[in-house]
Amino acid sequence: MKLIDGKQVAAQVIEECKQEIAQLKEQGIAPGLAVVLVGDDPASKVYVGSKVRKCAELGLHSEKIELPADATHEEVLAVVERLNADEKIHGILVQSPPPPQIDEDAIVRAIDPAKDVDGFHPVNVAKLALEDATGFVPCTPAGCMRLLKEAGIETSGAEAVVIGRSMIVGKPMALLLMGKDSNATVTVAHSRTKDLAEVCRRADIVVAAIGRPNFVTADMVKDGATVIDVGINRVEDASAPRGYRIVGDVDFDAVSPKCAAITPVPGGVGPMTIAMLISNTIKAAKLAQ
Ligand SMILES: NC(=O)C1=CN([C@@H]2O[C@H](COP(=O)(O)OP(=O)(O)OC[C@H]3O[C@@H](n4cnc5c(N)ncnc54)[C@H](OP(=O)(O)O)[C@@H]3O)[C@@H](O)[C@H]2O)C=CC1
Ligand SMILES: Nc1nc(=O)c2c([nH]1)NC[C@@H]1CN(c3ccc(C(=O)N[C@@H](CCC(=O)O)C(=O)O)cc3)C=[N+]21
């Protein structure tokens, strides 16, 4: 079994970014990322903090905009419009999910598609479906594809099963796997899928993006399959330093011995998401010239 080291691949992506940042600097350009957080969800705060920290580390311009949990939809919209007009900002990310009074779809549509480094705007969703390379690919599935590539996993002709059909992970992941750069045969499973275990057992590549700890069990995975675990779940653990642990969607201990390759959680897909966000921000800065 090969453990796919997401931290290491993410560090490699960041190294590539550093070179591009240096080149842009010579032209007097500093890529800028704005991260908007509405409310005080502790997990979201952690992610937003690590995104902003990574930017600072790399000498990128970054701005963190924190709005209270009771901010109105119009207030969030006004922040997005200000950032759209700000020439120092090339990428805008509004942390998902926002509080219920915020219409997330409307916020995403308000972001200038050229600054939509999350790849959530309908223009970028369409560009992904059309395989138009000028669009932004959502960071998490882009990171998963890079992990498969770096681990030397053959996707062409492979049977891939993606569990989950969200616009953030499952659906774009399926599009990338079936695309001309990858050529997998893709099945997308979700909560209405019948005989999920049987569907999964066909897979050479399983991508788990459900949001439930230990959801993917050993009986669902074929011997020699590759498993990409996107899940980030907090489980209580009194003996852990913070009182909780982060686990994925895969029962790692039972599944990993059967796999050709598998990503751990933490240290798998998560670090790649941030690396691809930086990479998308650089792309946005370049396209803005
Ligand atoms: N590592 C990273 O960087 C990131 C990790 N994540 C993590 O990935 C996981 C998924 O996130 P996200 O896609 O946003 O989650 P969503 O809740 O938006 O989507 C979950 C998907 O899983 C499906 N599902 C739920 N229950 C079942 C079931 N019993 N059987 C089959 N399918 C089921 C749902 O089906 P249906 O559509 O029918 O409801 C849905 O399509 C979460 O743990 C999240 O924290 C997310 C983003 C980034
Ligand atoms: N607009 C928007 N864009 C996002 O990209 C987005 C979002 N909203 N909402 C929430 C999800 C989740 N997400 C993660 C990013 C990094 C880690 C990560 O770095 N995880 C580390 C450590 C996790 C920890 O210790 O807490 C790891 O897996 O090793 C996890 C999850 C981005 N998301």
From TrEMBL:
Catalytic activity of the protein: (6R)-5,10-methenyltetrahydrofolate + H2O = (6R)-10-formyltetrahydrofolate + H(+); (6R)-5,10-methylene-5,6,7,8-tetrahydrofolate + NADP(+) = (6R)-5,10-methenyltetrahydrofolate + NADPH
Gene Ontology MF terms: methenyltetrahydrofolate cyclohydrolase activity; methylenetetrahydrofolate dehydrogenase (NADP+) activity
Keyword Amino-acid biosynthesis in record: yes
SUPFAM superfamilies cross-referenced by the UniProt entry: Aminoacid dehydrogenase-like, N-terminal domain (SSF53223), NAD(P)-binding Rossmann-fold domains (SSF51735)
This protein's record includes keyword Cytoplasm: no
Keyword list, A-Z: Amino-acid biosynthesis, Histidine biosynthesis, Hydrolase, Methionine biosynthesis, Multifunctional enzyme, NADP, One-carbon metabolism, Oxidoreductase, Purine biosynthesis
PROSITE patterns linked: THF_DHG_CYH_2
Pathways involved: One-carbon metabolism; tetrahydrofolate interconversion
Cellular component, GO annotation: cytosol
The Tetrahydrofolate dehydrogenase/cyclohydrolase catalytic domain, residue ranges: 4-118
EC numbers, comma separated: 1.5.1.5, 3.5.4.9
Signal sequence bounds: none
Residue intervals of the Tetrahydrofolate dehydrogenase/cyclohydrolase NAD(P)-binding domain: 138-287
Residues at which NADP(+) binds: G164, R165, S166, I232
The organism's place on the tree of life at top rank: Bacteria
One record GO biological process: purine nucleotide biosynthetic process
Function: Catalyzes the oxidation of 5,10-methylenetetrahydrofolate to 5,10-methenyltetrahydrofolate and then the hydrolysis of 5,10-methenyltetrahydrofolate to 10-formyltetrahydrofolate.
HAMAP family found in the cross-reference section: THF_DHG_CYH
Name of the protein in question: Bifunctional protein FolD
Organism: Persicirhabdus sediminis
Phylogenetic lineage: Bacteria, Pseudomonadati, Verrucomicrobiota, Verrucomicrobiia, Verrucomicrobiales
Gene: folD
